Amino acid sequence: MKYYNYNSPLELNNVNLIGGKAFNLRKMSFLTCPKWFVLTTDFFNEWLKDDKEKINSYLKNNKLEEISNIVLNKPFSLDTINEIKNKLSDNLYAVRSSAVNEDSINHSYAGIMESYLNIAKENVFDAIKRCYLSAYSKQAIEYNKYNNINFSDIQMAVIIQEMVDADYAGVINTINPITNNPDEIIISVVKGLGESLVSGQADSTDYFINDSNIKIRGEDFLSKNIIDKLLLITKEIIKRTDTFQDIEFAIKDKEVYFLQTRAIATYANINNKEKRIVLDNSNIIESYCGVTTPLTFSFAKEVYHKVYTQTLEAGRVNKKIINSLDSSLRELLYFYDNKVYYNLNSWYHLNSIFKGKKSSSNMENMMGVQSKLTNTKKVKMNIAQILKFGIIFLKRLKRMPKDSKLFINKFNEIVMPYVGCSFNTKNNQELIELYQSLEKNILNDFSTPIINDCGAMVYYAMLTRFVKKINILDKDGYISYLVGRQGDVLSATSAPLFLNILNDIKNNAEIKIDFNTLNSKELYEKYQYNSKLSTSIDEYIKIFGPRVMDELKLETITLIEDPIFLYDMLKNYLINDIDFIGHEPNNDFNVHVSLLKRPLFKHLVKKTKYFIKNRESLRLKRTYIYSVVRNIFISIGNNFKNLNLINESKDIFYLTKHEIFSYIKENEIIDFKSLIQNRKKEYDVNKTKETYNRLVIYGAQVLPIYTEQETSNSNILKGIPSGAGVVSGRAKLVTNPNEALLKKDDIMLALRTDPGWIPLFPLCKGIVVEKGSILSHSAVVAREMGIPAVVGVSGATTIIKNNMQIKVDGIKGEVEIYEELL
After folding, report:
1. Structure letter (DSSP) for residue 561
2. How far apart are CA 716 and CA 371, in angstroms?
3. How far apart are CA 426 and CA 411, in angstroms?
4. 91, 574, 724, 761: which has the highest count of C-beta atoms within 10 A?
5. What Å distances lie between residue 628 and 407, 548, 657, CA to CA?
6. What confidence score (pLDDT) does residue 821 get?
């Protein structure tokens, strides 16, 4: 076959005959497309059959000019010329290459083969020859060598397609190639022909589309109607292809014309039709930063499953609906490279129990998710079920103060007697019984903290929507200002307690000398029974002993297990003479206080503040549970070591809860030592691997997702404001609060914080945190202390270098980089 028309029968759609580009065109024949036909590989093989030996010889000896002379001087037969002329009108044409491997999954040949635009009828024949000849160009030969493609396998076809005298032209990528985000489509468009876009002669306007969110970079010259048409084309192509696509289009007189599509070679190994798992570390990095042991993950995963299932049951959700959610409830957390991630597929499925257009956005804001996940599974509920759930949920919110008091009283009765206790005298069976008692009485009745979290999410969202109707420039900063500085937020009180201890030491010359000369162990031994100092330290440990860096990792040693850590921190601050920085309340928004006269506004502020404050108080209880569970497993580790099942007591953390309990309950024989050895090796290897904000797993393929800010060269970074003023100073990167050396004008820069960092907060002039959300711990505490801070600043610890001079705008939520200090 010599010719293949755009309307040829589908069964003749043979890639070896018409080449990759024409093959893709034919597959998309359902779209509006300029008329085209293709000169097939058979056509060119017949045309050059007498010259093949010469061409192969010249090719072998790299005599490309001789090949060019053969092709350009080879005449077409009169019949061929007439046949082609009969297919042409007086329009201008595009003559495009369509090699057999071109635009394939593995080989795009992007920029290798030639295309010729705006070709008049009489010049088409010369363009055909030159287009075919591009298969023998120097760059084509180098490309083939690099990709180990045998040149004898190259077969070329050529497309002749009517030109569209475009008003606009562009390219659509069905994945964001800058960030790898598969849920974001990018439309890049220029005025006139698309050649200026491909060649880089013109700057494009880029439309970044994530679900219903559209972000525009450049001049906005496409109407909503045109964007909708382009998205319809894109979504249909996505349905019909298995790989991420690069789609070319043109627009003439408001009509969209499809020109071609091809697989993006970078993502050739990913089949986007496979079931995918989307992982995001968002706020959970506050609790589980870096590598985590199997025991911690297995315990945390089970806890999430239990408490959220129990919460749905407490909300009297239909049993069938809970069962339909069970697979998601069991997979709320995911373990990858020894790092803990949210499984967003499961969270979106669970969150769909809340009906309404804003429910997903509310969840995303609370979790700090920066990119929306689309096409997620949803819970099916009828009107009666929705109303029932909504009424019960509102009732639970209304009685939250009463429920919280009951929960705390019960918690204090059941859990607090065990905090700080050693269980080394108990045997394994007794330890399991203790664990199961705590599980039955507390973990299976944890709905109050979860409902409170939902209340904080809902009221914060309602307050945000209300404020955004007001004519105020820095709305996010104003919201943070409104819910901050309410007093008695439990997490924030650890800093004043710590500083009181520090001041007591500074004001006692004898004790101060000891802290400058003795090591931490010696100080502990000398002062653990000193009436005044030990009383202050004991009070601090009693309340905040479990609140250390990585407090929710069972492998973490807290102040309860080792109070010497506290002496280390006190010594560090004294030796380096770190000063406390007072933070006055910010009054920048007082002009808007008159809004509090509005009853609805006043109600929203009051409720939002309550739920945020209560959230911090209830979350502290979770820390105490982990402290008790930690000591239970440490004691089991001691018992396992005595039984010669493991080499060291701490090796227990490399086993899962199921493995430990199975042995104790059923005496299941497992070679724990070999298993632990392998997991330790894996743990150490994973320590060195990069931690990604988001991962998408397609089958066996893992796609890391980056944020756009991490790839940006802008000197202004955006995040979530504390609403507490503006400061400038030197950025000081802190990775471990126990080793921080902050000076008076320092602005603390951190990947993330957790409650173990709180003693540092009053020492900072300002705070910048890469991870976090509006309700994350660092944001709440910074707001409460009145510290200018911006959290959730993507790429902050990569872009901002140590000692850079920066400005932190806690009102606008911006961090500006001034200069780098020498």
Report:
1. T
2. 20
3. 23
4. 724
5. 18, 15, 15
6. 46
Which residues, in sequence order, are CB contacts of 261 under 8 Å at separation 6+?
A: 24, 28, 103, 237, 241, 245, 246, 247, 248
d(CA 204, CA 188) in angstroms, rounded, equals 6
Which positions ≥6 away from 63 have C-beta within 8 Å?
none
Pairing of strands 766-769, 789-791: parallel
Q: What is the pLDDT of residues 626-667, one digit of tens each?
A: 999 999 999 999 999 999 999 999 999 999 999 999 999 887
Assigned token pair, 617: 């108080």
Q: Which of 777, 799, 780, 772 is nearest to 717 (CA)?
A: 799
Contact 416, 390 (CB under 8 A): no
pLDDT of residue 60: 83
**3-state SS record for 371-437:** CCCCCCCCCCCCHHHHHHHHHHHHHHHHCHHHHHHHHHHHHHHHCHHHCCCCCCCCCHHHHHHHHHH
Sheet of 115-119: strand order equals 3-5, 36-39, 156-162, 93-99, 115-119
List strand residue ranges (DSSP E) for 653-803, in order. 694-698, 701-705, 716-718, 720-721, 726-733, 746-750, 766-769, 789-791
- C-alpha span between 714 and 570 (Å, rounded): 39
Backbone dihedral angles phi then psi of residue 608, each to the nearest 5 degrees: -60, -45
Quote the tokens at residue 74.
């080879």
What single-letter amino acid sits at 90?
D
Name the 3-class secondary structure at 308. helix
Strand ranges, E, within 491-613? none
Q: Cβ(621)–Cβ(544) under 8 Å?
A: no
Residues making up the chain, counted from first to last = 822
Edge to edge, the sheet with strand 276-280 lists 333-336, 339-343, 276-280, 694-698, 701-705
Phi-psi region of 200 (alpha: psi -120 to 50; beta: other; left: phi over 0): left
Six token digits for residue 668: 């299941």
pLDDT tier for residue 822 given thresholds of 50, 70 and 90 = very low
Place of tokens 């009297």: 316
Verdict on whether the full-model pTM lies above 0.85: no
Looking from the CA of 193 toward its CB, the CA atoms found within 13 Å total: 12
Give the Cβ contact number of residue 393 at 10 Å: 18
CB contact set of 538 (below 8 Å; sequence gap of 6+): none
Which residues does 655 contact at the CB level (< 8 Å), separation at least 6? Answer: 294, 295, 672, 675, 676
